[in-house]
Amino acid sequence: MRKTEKSKGAPKKRLGIRGKVSAHPYKSDRKKFSSGRKAKLGTCSVVSSERMNRNHYMSVTGLEFSYGEVQVLHGLEFELPAQSVCCVMGRNGVGKTTFLRNIVGLEKPSAGSVLIGGTEFLGLDASDRAVRGIGYVPQGRQIFPLLTVEENLSVGLEAAPPDQRQIPTAVYDTFPVLYDMRKRRGGDLSGGQQQQLAIGRALTTRPKLLVLDEPTEGIQPNVITMIGEIIRNLVAQEGMTILLVEQYLDFVRSYGDSFAVMSRGQFVVSGRVEDLDSNTVHKHLSV
Ligand SMILES: Nc1ncnc2c1ncn2[C@@H]1O[C@H](COP(=O)(O)OP(=O)(O)OP(=O)(O)O)[C@@H](O)[C@H]1O
Ligand SMILES: [Mg+2]
Known about the structure:
By secondary structure, the chain is α/β, with parallel strands linked by helices.
């Protein structure tokens, strides 16, 4: 029988802000990631353009986006400090994935500005943005089940210049299981291995900004911990900036530097993860 997420005993139901807020299966690992390991570079924030800070790696202003007649993003404002981990949170359907897809160039906003490293990215398509240093790990992983692990990783390199289309050894160093399984088909990997593959694929182009959409969704606790550690290492050792959507409150508190809560296509509250108090959680996140 092929290995599947189910056969490996992955939890069927996620705990986190959708359920009891305090419950989390890998809580014991949190101590390792106390604030001493985290960047002290400010927070992702919801501020007006006049207050834009030059130290912010990305500044989004007035972002508007609609699916046909239905407007999803409503003049969204957002700032992301360099070399830190910002966690976007919010209830289902508020527009988190749509926001990320607008940042990576898979959707085109009707208005607004996306400044990254001082450059306006709005007119660039997704492959141009990838070449300029944006890596994307989509919600649900979206690996190619019939391609091998190696081929899946190579897909991430398609936007790279021809002389840079080798899979970097650092990807296999980061995820040794991908090297061991490089000839296996992506669809034969467990859910946790597929998530590693999706992150590995985004890292092949050595991004400066890594955007991840719910990287812990449907993943076992030990792999969640590993992903959290890798994210912190990418910031500390590679100087990467990380923007992720996350529903697990404990993951945000363990591995995030700052948070921003979205409601109906706008950010309504933001700050340091230390300041993510139960009032905010109950008002904007609890079901
Ligand atoms: N391709 C699409 N066409 C039309 N409407 C869409 C499309 N994708 C998303 N939507 C709608 O846009 C809204 C925002 O969706 P989005 O996927 O961005 O939410 P989300 O916050 O990521 O939700 P979740 O927590 O469930 O992942 C929802 O009402 C959704 O139904
Ligand atoms: Mg989503």
